[in-house]
Write a structure and sequence with these properties.
Blueprint (H helix, E strand, L loop, with lengths): L26 E6 L9 H18 L8 E8 L12 E5 L5 H11 L3 E4 L11 E4 L4 H4 L6 H17 L2 E4 L2 H9 L8 E3 L25 E5 L8 H6 L1 H6 L3 E5 L4 H4 L11 E5 L3 H8 L4 E4 L8 H8 L4 E4 L4 H5 L4 E3 L4 H10 L3 H15 L4 H16 L8 H4 L12 E2 L2
Parallel strand pairs: 1-2, 1-4, 2-3, 4-5, 5-6, 6-7, 8-9, 8-11, 9-10, 11-12, 12-13
Antiparallel strand pairs: 7-14
Helix pairs in contact: 1-14, 10-13
Length: about 400
């Protein structure tokens, strides 16, 4: 994904006025914009979409944004800045890695800090830190030794320092507690949304032309926890029922080491990295999306597929049942025959149509706007220096991931 280009110099935007005659107390927050210097995965997508949704709510003078003064700090190497209406963007410091985050960010940050992409400055405690998953603990084989040990040190330290820890699913919240990463009373579930798919426009390319109605799409790297090997193992069985397999994505050796899956099968094509517009082109024309991961903190590709009308066959592990509900077909990630049967069942048009309808309805339950409202509420709680436990009636909203931005403590 390419960040939307800047429309020129950023101008200071007046803060929204309150709805009463009370004086407005300025509440200063800084967004850690290090993710804008990184290649886009699901984690960076989350950071970008939450930032854009927060900006929209502030521009609309949302009541929870009363008195907020927010700016994003980004490394100077970032050349394409997000186009924001109410949030300022400021470029500071050399580099864009952990040193920038640990030294440059806290020096220049004003007020509390909002960190949306796993890591945060350990020099501050008045901050929110989103830790997306515990995958380095759950599936260490998927990560390089350096990355694995860095995250095993950084994540607990980040959670300990932060005032509030957010995560993207109740499954992840349980894992953060189970591995001693975060105290359960600190953890708040703020999930991904689907609205970004509305900005996608279908674009054909050489890669997309390799995908036809009989193609099964799989999105992800060959990292072991993504379980790509399962689908490659049943490629010949899929061919027997007239289906091909197309793999989208690329391996980041800095994170996942040097492991790489290869396949020399005539019904398997490797598409590499695609733009969002190319992705919607293949999702709207393919047979289905197959997502066989052993673990995910959230699992954004199935949600995106459901949102654009693509039927999904997904693993029955980790966060996937929580996110997908009854709108997909489930298969065990260690049972190849189950995947053959599930994928083949979508050749039935009645089954396919019913799943598409359910998937679209399910996707509407996940909103970037609602999640941004949840962050506004968490920010207000920190500014008020209190974090009350929710009423019993509010806890019943857990299964719907909160309504109208309700922040959900994991209790």
């Amino acid at each position: 994904m390419t960040w939307p280009p800047s429309r020129g110099p950023m101008k200071s935007t007046a803060l929204p006025e309150g709805r009463s005659n009370d004086p407005i107390v300025t509440r200063r927050w800084t967004v850690n914009g290090r993710f804008l210097a990184q290649r886009t995965t699901g984690v960076q997508r989350y950071g970008y979409e939450i930032l854009m949704a927060l900006d929209a709510l502030m521009a609309e003078q949302h009541p929870l944004a009363r008195g907020l003064d927010v700016e994003v700090l980004v490394p100077r190497k970032v050349t394409q800045l997000p186009c924001l209406r109410a949030i300022r963007v400021r470029s500071v410091g050399a580099g864009a890695g952990h040193i920038w985050e640990q030294l440059t960010l806290p020096i220049h940050a004003k007020g509390a800090i909002l960190n949306l992409c796993n890591t945060a400055s350990l020099a501050r405690s008045r901050q929110i830190a989103c830790i997306h998953d515990a995958n380095t603990f759950l599936f260490p084989a998927s990560y390089s030794r350096r990355f694995r040990w860095l995250y095993r040190l950084m994540l607990p330290a980040t959670a300990h320092r932060a005032s509030i820890v957010t995560t993207v699913s109740h499954f992840s919240a349980k894992c953060l507690e189970a591995y001693g990463i975060a105290n359960r009373r600190k953890v708040v579930v703020v999930p991904n949304g689907h609205e970004h798919t509305r900005r996608w426009s279908r674009v054909r390319s050489t890669q997309t032309d390799m995908v036809q109605r009989n193609t099964v799409i799989v999105i992800g790297s060959p990292a072991p926890h993504k379980n790509l090997a399962l689908l490659l193992s049943i490629a010949s069985d899929l061919k027997a029922v007239g289906l091909n397999l197309a793999v989208v994505g690329a391996l980041d050796n800095r994170v996942h080491g040097n492991g790489k899956s290869t396949a020399d099968r005539e019904n398997v094509v490797w598409l590499g990295r695609l733009s969002d517009d190319e992705l919607i082109e293949i999702l709207e024309r393919c047979h289905c999306l197959a997502f066989p991961s052993f673990t995910e903190g959230f699992g954004l590709p199935p949600l995106e597929a459901m949102a654009v009308g693509c039927p999904v066959v997904v693993s029955d592990r980790a966060s996937m049942p929580e996110i997908c509900g009854d709108a997909v077909i489930y298969a065990a990630p260690d049972k190849p025959p189950h995947w053959i049967d599930a994928i083949a069942s979508l050749k039935n048009e009645a089954v396919r149509s019913a799943l598409i309808e359910k998937g679209h309805a399910r996707a509407q339950k996940f909103s970037w706007k609602s999640s941004a409202e949840a962050y506004l509420r968490a920010m207000a709680l920190i500014d008020a220096d209190s974090y009350p436990r929710p009423r019993a009636s509010d806890r019943k909203k857990d299964s719907a991931f909160g309504r109208a931005g309700f922040v959900i403590p994991f209790v």
